[in-house]
Structures are given as structure tokens and as C-alpha cells.
């Protein structure tokens, strides 16, 4: 690549401050340093976590930044000491690293890693170090990835090399939303064949959780959302029933108890609301019910009566679906290519990076499942 070793000037959507529209700017992307990879981003999804940082978290030290963390692209150049990636490789940047050396990476119990932004900067949601500048100012790389830019630089411990035939405008969704929901059902909840499941929230993460429940062999999958138009989509992924809490004058947990003879075996909260998290727990059957928190939030405390857990329920959380990132994502890409995992059905809108604010508005109004933005030409 003729650009190797040089600063690249390219287009990016910059979030200069919280709660304001993103601005298309020309930014400078520095060459990769040791163990880093510069990636040309071909496609990116728009995920609720991008909106969370912009409109809810709003941490003043987290701006200006380039959002986006659900992308796929092609290696443009590599820094020194990078041996497993070459220019031209198709890759997915990862918001959870997998260094392979820390105590978490070495444990089969978790997919966390001690390296990268996620180890101690959950509030700011980016590292202090960045390879981006714009108008003379340092611009942070959101979640270590920043896929709302034509080029980004990511440490090799947070990049997955994927199958060369993978369509980047589809597999980008495995960088966050689909892997998160699908793995929460399979890896975290460990949904069992013949079980009854409830999924709260039918965005991309929730629909992926529905798909995970189906692939795990669940018998009943109850999809729950206040938007009735989501049910037809949920059926595509395997939902057997739909409940709209607005149709009932009693708590949703009571409705589910009555539908299931005392509660569901597994529930997954895919909204990011502490009130819904409590409802999901209370919807589980006593004795063995498992409820998993999947929706991302760090704004409020959650609460429940201790008897809920004393009576045998389990309450647990899931980050990136429990997948060890560099190992899991290439396998998920292969499962998509083998038609074992759906991706095309999540994409309701195809847009350009310049339309990112329109895509954000679609997500705010609930009028899309996933918008995929074309970023740089392949």
C-alpha cells in the first residue's frame, strides 16, 4: 500500500461534544506503531452503545471522539512486530481485546482481558492514547475501535482476521450486536433444549438472543417489546410468542408466570434498563431460573428482593456474549458463511457514513433493526 508509513487524511464522523449531531470532518490518522494495525473500514453498523455514550453516558472526558465499534474492513498496513496480519487481510476490529497472556485470557471462565480501554475506563469508553487528530486537536478512539472513520488504528490484540470471502457489509454486525445477543443465550445463559425462554427488547441484540435460544433448542421463545411491529421480525429468528407489556394492566413478570406455569427457565434483558432487568429476573421460575443482563448501562443501580435469589434464581451478566473475541469472531463468520447464523435479516437500512446522523435518528425512534453504513470503498 502506497500509504504505508504515512499519515492518512480521511473522512470521519466526529462527536465533538455530547448530545450533538456528529460532524463529517477530515481527520489525520497516524501510521500504526508497534503491535498495531491500520485498517480501512469498509462497513459499520450503528449500535445502541454509540448512542449511549453520546446521549446518556456523556462523560466530558470522552469527547471529542470518533464513535463506531461494529465495523469490518481491510488491513492497510501493519506496525512493527505484527506477524499474523498482512495488508489486504479482511478483519473485524474488536472492542474487547484478547491478549492471550493475562489471567482472564488464560481462564476459560471469562472473555475479559486486562489489556485495552475496557480494563479501567468504562466511564470514558476510550483510551487516553489515540492515533487521530482533527483541526490540531486529539480525537479519542471510542472503545478502541472508531469505525465511523475511513481508517482506524487498532492494537493487534483487538483485531480478528476473518475468512477472505466474508461480505464485510454483513459480518460487521458480529463486531458487537449479533455476537452479544447470540452468545448471551448460548454461552452465558446456556439455554437448554426443550426450555422456555423470554427475551426482553427486540433490537438487534434481542433478536440475536432469540436466534441463540432457537439454535440452543429452546421449545418456547417469548419475545417481549413495546413495539408490536417487532414481532414479525422476531418470528424470523425463532420467536414462538410475542407479548407487549402495554397490552396488560399487570406487571409483565406476572403475565409470564401465568403463561408458563410459574415463570420461564431463561430470561435475557436486551434493553439496558434497570427496571426491565428486575422484570426479567422476576419473570424466571424459582428453583433454577437464570436471568442474564445483556443491555449495556452504567447509569443506575439495579434492585431486587433478596428472596428472588434465595429461592434459587441466578442473576448474571454477559459482555460480548461471552465470546473470547479473537477466537470467537472468526468462528461466527464461518457459521454465517455456512448459513448456521443469520445476519442479512438484521439489516433494515443501508446508508453511507455521511448519513450517520439519520441512522442514529432511526435507532432512537425504533424504526430500524440495524443500519449498516458504507464507509470506504472496498
Automatic annotation (TrEMBL):
<dbReference type="GO" id="GO:0046294">
    <property type="term" value="P:formaldehyde catabolic process"/>
</dbReference>
<feature type="domain" description="Enoyl reductase (ER)">
    <location>
        <begin position="9"/>
        <end position="373"/>
    </location>
</feature>
<dbReference type="Pfam" id="PF00107">
    <property type="entry name" value="ADH_zinc_N"/>
</dbReference>
<dbReference type="GO" id="GO:0005829">
    <property type="term" value="C:cytosol"/>
</dbReference>
<dbReference type="GO" id="GO:0051903">
    <property type="term" value="F:S-(hydroxymethyl)glutathione dehydrogenase [NAD(P)+] activity"/>
</dbReference>
<dbReference type="InterPro" id="IPR002328">
    <property type="entry name" value="ADH_Zn_CS"/>
</dbReference>
<dbReference type="GO" id="GO:0008270">
    <property type="term" value="F:zinc ion binding"/>
</dbReference>
<comment type="similarity">
    <text>Belongs to the zinc-containing alcohol dehydrogenase family.</text>
</comment>
<dbReference type="Pfam" id="PF08240">
    <property type="entry name" value="ADH_N"/>
</dbReference>
<keyword id="KW-0560">Oxidoreductase</keyword>
<dbReference type="InterPro" id="IPR036291">
    <property type="entry name" value="NAD(P)-bd_dom_sf"/>
</dbReference>
<keyword id="KW-0862">Zinc</keyword>
<dbReference type="InterPro" id="IPR013154">
    <property type="entry name" value="ADH-like_N"/>
</dbReference>
<dbReference type="InterPro" id="IPR013149">
    <property type="entry name" value="ADH-like_C"/>
</dbReference>
<keyword id="KW-0520">NAD</keyword>
<protein>
    <submittedName>
        <fullName>Alcohol dehydrogenase 8b</fullName>
    </submittedName>
</protein>
<keyword id="KW-0479">Metal-binding</keyword>
<dbReference type="InterPro" id="IPR011032">
    <property type="entry name" value="GroES-like_sf"/>
</dbReference>
<dbReference type="InterPro" id="IPR020843">
    <property type="entry name" value="ER"/>
</dbReference>
